[in-house]
Structure to design on (1025 residues):
């Protein structure tokens, strides 16, 4: 059973992100950041779901999110990302990229660094989070931002360097590796760029045949970096294999309206989450498929006395292909709607450990515990 | 002229109304624009004014962060209610509606709590006054809503009506809790001067268990009154409450119990304890005793319910209004100026829904309460749909007003959409007019607005949004983005315009921008002729770069012969043919070369006339052009000769 709390926050939420937890600890995330949009005065705010002092014996207890601090943000918060435990980088609709610092001692936020007019309108910022150890502090982080103006900017410390331009609107960006990034744009293309190469051309372009449905979001598989999921205007979920094919491996009909975000679960990558303009938040579960496949492999080998390691091997093999093989016709993919019926857009979601947080246009933030169960 | 329902309020605007000036105004969607103006005695000169503009708005509440939660949360309930309508079965209908009503109330209560928290934490005196004013309005809303729920939605029958009214009273009078706290926390509660007040207050609300507990304390300590206490306790215990039994059964029991009370009073059982005697009189519903204890009740409606409890426990909906009016009169005699809240409650007791709505519209300065309550009551089929003179019924009118208010807010506009959707008559028109006026600051906002319009097949608004975005992109010199927007809107005219810009850019700079888009136009290319040409022309360049010369040549020629290319562009196309003509192998056949030649002639013929008129200015231009044409003619002639030779050779 999942448990859920909703909090009305008097501002439309455009982004929600968990603060990363140290990889070594088994700690669950307890602080998230939220950004607002379309308000007269937009804000970046930090919320805590950990409750101080009181120890609750019931497992299912979920505390109401509590506001830690907030700070004015010029323009709509288009994207928001934690650099480390203390620093948050935001992209603004005024084209500005800002780094905020969270002072945990007195619970305040302050502006640490900013790049004015990085874009005409900044859509998205990312930094290369290492896939195996989320939350590792980068000493000299490279931040990439993309904008409505089609530019890709790369920032290092405090010098600004414009890397590339491509003219059609870029909606989202992720790091594939530390030197390679992937972008999606409004004519339905997925592009791969190598930051080391000069020039204005992407190294690869992927697109759907004869389709130019704008793509809005993308995420890559946390352990298999060639598996990438994207979502677009028609609410369709596409899974791509960027090693091989120029076209998506599978197309899954999903939401009724724009898909705003897609996320693999960072430690259980057989689970995928998507949210959409139509007000739904979906959980895609491919793990059932994984469970079935080994038995098939076992049968195929006809070996009754399989050693333990062999079973483990077949497990990991099937894990590799869980998403690439997920064929909707096989019906192995389980989909759950996680939110009670609502009509207003779910703009953002983030999932970490046992918790999921999402923000909506109904000015509410939902925190879900154990969304996988 | 219609009669006014209330005296219009006066507002003082700082900076306006100076001596010798006038005030000009203009209507906005939800606000007034006021400015200073002066009419000179003779209409010659413009007189100087302060040049200050003031906005006056009536719905400040929209901008309160606490109330925004109310708007958002109730939006969800509203939408749920409209949906449930479709799948309703009449059996569970009433229970469903009561549940919805309770949901609305719990949202209100949460909002009150929040407001209370905010009000007590602020130090600003002005702010805190404002908060407590809003708080009092909210609690009035909750009080009224609860009463309406009992009277209209539950439509409680005799017996259960009073049970519900008692709950209502208990929930909304906090006075008793204050007394209880005061008494029970004192060192010796029994000696406290308000000890008996507390018991009486409990009895007035029929909270017998609590009253008896206190009584037991008294009995345990004071031996002299122990027997009296026991009798009173017995009476309190035995008081019949309406539950599962039939109405006649209940009435019989009630009559019996009442007679017993009366007997005790007449026998003077309690004569040595005036307090207990008073309680006994209360149990008999003696009006003057109840009036004596009016401080314990505080409000006339508490008095009404307490009196009914001990005189007419089986009161029905139809009877209650006559009691209500007289209770109000007795409770505050000589006070003719009634509070607005009293009027609302009185109207509710009279079961006059329209009056309730009207009174409340006057009291509050936002439409939330009346719109949602009316909608809920409308779902109970309580309104005879009598149309108002402005073309919609009351429910729709109030929803429209409320939603328009939301649309005037920079952020809450998205909520308004669903309200308009559920207004069958004018909702669509309102939505169309409002959607056109949403400021589109970012692409994401535009996408959201677009989705709203597309879902409702509002083609005109879709076009308008796309056009706005395309124009913005154009102004920022982002032709690709502009083109995508006009393709999305299927706006052929604008697509032509942008294609022309692309071609112009190409002529000036010799290369295309936004290749991504142009290369991937697909079927969208057919939107306008010019766009088709742009796509095909780019295709020609690609073929040429890929060294597919023959296909390139065929395409180039067909662009002109099929009249896809605009006339002004023909020379450029012909010049593009030049390198193909000069290739080592023959690419254009003789037939094709003839066609090219006729194209060239046609073009020069068409060009001649306008040139003559502006000859002087264009003389230099035309000399360059003439050289180009000469070069072309030469190349064409040479190619023709080569082609004839080659074709002749092949045939042999």
């Amino acid at each position: 059973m999942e448990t859920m709390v909703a909090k009305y926050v008097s501002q439309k939420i455009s982004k929600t992100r968990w603060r990363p937890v140290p990889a070594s600890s088994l700690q669950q995330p307890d602080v998230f950041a939220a950004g607002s949009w379309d308000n007269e005065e937009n804000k970046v705010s930090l919320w805590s779901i950990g409750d101080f002092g009181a120890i609750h014996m019931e497992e299912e207890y979920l505390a109401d999110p509590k506001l830690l601090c907030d700070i004015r943000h010029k323009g709509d918060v288009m994207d928001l990302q934690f650099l480390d435990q203390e620093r948050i980088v935001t992209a603004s609709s005024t084209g500005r990229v800002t780094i905020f610092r969270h002072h945990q001692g007195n619970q305040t936020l302050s502006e640490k660094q900013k790049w004015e007019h990085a874009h005409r309108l900044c859509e998205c910022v990312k930094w290369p989070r290492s896939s195996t150890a989320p939350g590792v502090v980068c000493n000299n982080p490279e931040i990439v931002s993309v904008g409505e103006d089609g530019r890709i900017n790369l920032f290092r410390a405090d010098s600004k360097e414009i890397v590339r331009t491509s003219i059609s609107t870029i909606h989202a960006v992720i790091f594939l590796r530390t030197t390679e990034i992937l972008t999606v744009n409004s004519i339905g293309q997925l592009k791969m760029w190598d930051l080391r190469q000069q020039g204005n051309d992407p190294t690869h372009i992927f697109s759907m045949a004869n389709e130019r449905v704008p793509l809005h979001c993308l995420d890559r598989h946390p352990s298999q970096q060639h598996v990438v999921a994207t979502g677009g205007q028609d609410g369709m979920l596409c899974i791509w294999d960027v090693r091989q094919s120029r076209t998506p491996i599978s197309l899954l009909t999903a939401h009724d309206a724009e898909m705003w975000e897609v996320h693999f679960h960072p430690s259980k990558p057989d689970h995928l989450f998507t949210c959409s303009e139509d007000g739904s938040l979906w959980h895609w579960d491919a793990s059932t498929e994984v469970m079935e496949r080994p038995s098939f492999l076992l049968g195929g080998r006809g070996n009754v006395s399989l050693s333990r390691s062999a079973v483990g091997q077949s497990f990991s093999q099937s894990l590799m292909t869980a998403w690439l093989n997920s064929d909707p016709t096989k019906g192995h993919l389980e989909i759950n709607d996680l939110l009670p019926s609502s009509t207003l857009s779910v703009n953002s979601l983030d999932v970490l450990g046992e918790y999921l947080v999402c923000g909506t246009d109904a000015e509410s933030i939902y925190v879900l515990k154990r969304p996988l169960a | 002229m219609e009669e006014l329902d209330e005296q219009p309020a006066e507002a003082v605007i700082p900076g306006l109304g100076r001596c010798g000036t006038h005030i000009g105004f203009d209507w906005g969607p939800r606000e007034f624009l006021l400015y200073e103006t002066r009419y000179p005695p003779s209409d010659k000169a413009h007189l100087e004014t302060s040049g200050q503009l003031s906005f006056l708005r009536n719905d400040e509440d929209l901008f309160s962060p606490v109330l925004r939660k109310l708007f958002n949360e109730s939006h969800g309930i509203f939408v749920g209610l409209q949906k449930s309508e479709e799948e309703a079965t009449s059996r569970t209908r009433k229970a469903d509606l009561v549940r919805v009503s309770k949901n609305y109330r719990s949202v209100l209560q949460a909002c009150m709590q929040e407001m209370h928290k905010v009000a007590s934490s602020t130090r600003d005196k002005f702010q805190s006054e404002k908060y407590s004013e809003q708080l009092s309005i909210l609690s009035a809303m909750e009080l009224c809503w609860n009463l309406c729920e009992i009277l209209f939605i539950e439509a409680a029958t005799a017996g259960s009506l009073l049970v519900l009214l008692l709950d209502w009273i208990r929930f909304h009078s906090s006075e008793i809790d204050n007394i209880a706290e005061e008494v029970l926390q004192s060192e010796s509660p029994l000696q406290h001067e308000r000890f008996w007040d507390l018991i009486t207050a409990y009895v007035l609300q029929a909270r017998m268990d609590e009253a008896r507990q206190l009584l037991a304390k008294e009995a345990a300590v004071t031996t002299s009154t122990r027997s009296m206490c026991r009798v009173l306790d017995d009476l309190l215990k035995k008081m019949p409450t309406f539950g599962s039994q039939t109405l006649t059964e209940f009435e019989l029991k009630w009559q019996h119990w009442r007679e017993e009370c009366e007997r005790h009073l007449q026998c003077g059982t309690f004569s040595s304890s005036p307090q207990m005697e008073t309680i006994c009189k209360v149990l008999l519903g003696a009006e003057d005793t109840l009036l004596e204890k009016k401080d314990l009740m505080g409000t006339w409606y508490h008095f009404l319910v307490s009196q009914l409890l001990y005189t007419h426990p089986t009161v029905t909906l139809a009877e209650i209004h006559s009691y209500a009016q007289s209770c109000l009169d007795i409770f505050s005699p000589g006070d003719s100026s009634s509070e607005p809240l009293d009027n609302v409650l009185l109207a509710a007791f009279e079961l006059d829904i329209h009056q309730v709505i009207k009174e409340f519209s006057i009291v509050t300065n936002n439409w939330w309460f009346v719109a949602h309550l009316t909608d809920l009551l409308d779902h109970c089929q309580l309104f005879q749909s009598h149309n108002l003179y402005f073309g919609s019924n009351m429910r729709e009118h109030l929803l429209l007003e409320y939603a328009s208010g939301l649309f005037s807010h920079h952020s809450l506009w998205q909520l308004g959409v669903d309200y308009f959707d559920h207004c069958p008559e004018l909702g669509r028109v309102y939505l169309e007019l409002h959607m056109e006026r949403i400021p589109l600051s970012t692409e994401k906002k535009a996408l959201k607005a677009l989705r709203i319009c597309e879902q409702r097949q509002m083609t005109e608004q879709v076009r308008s949004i796309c056009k706005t975005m395309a124009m913005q992109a154009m102004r920022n010199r982002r032709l690709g983005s502009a083109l995508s927007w006009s393709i999305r809107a299927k706006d052929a005219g604008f697509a032509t315009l942008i294609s022309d810009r692309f071609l112009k850019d190409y002529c000036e700079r010799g290369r295309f921008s936004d290749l991504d888009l142009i290369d991937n136009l697909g079927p969208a290319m057919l939107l306008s002729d010019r766009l088709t040409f742009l796509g095909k022309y780019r295709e020609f360049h690609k073929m040429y770069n890929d060294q597919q010369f023959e296909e390139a040549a065929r395409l180039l020629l067909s662009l002109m012969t099929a009249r896809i290319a605009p006339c002004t562009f023909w020379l450029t196309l012909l010049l593009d043919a030049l390198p193909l003509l000069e290739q080592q192998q023959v690419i254009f056949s003789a037939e094709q070369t003839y066609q090219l030649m006729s194209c060239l002639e046609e073009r020069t013929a068409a060009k001649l006339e306008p040139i003559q008129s502006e000859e002087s200015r264009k003389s230099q231009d035309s000399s360059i052009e003439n050289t180009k044409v000469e070069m072309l003619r030469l190349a064409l002639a040479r190619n023709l000769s080569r082609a004839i030779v080659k074709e002749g050779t092949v045939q042999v």
Summary: The first strand of chain A starts at residue 3 and ends at 8. Chain A has one domain: 3-286+337-369. Confidence is low (pLDDT under 50) at residues 129-140, 292-319 of chain A.
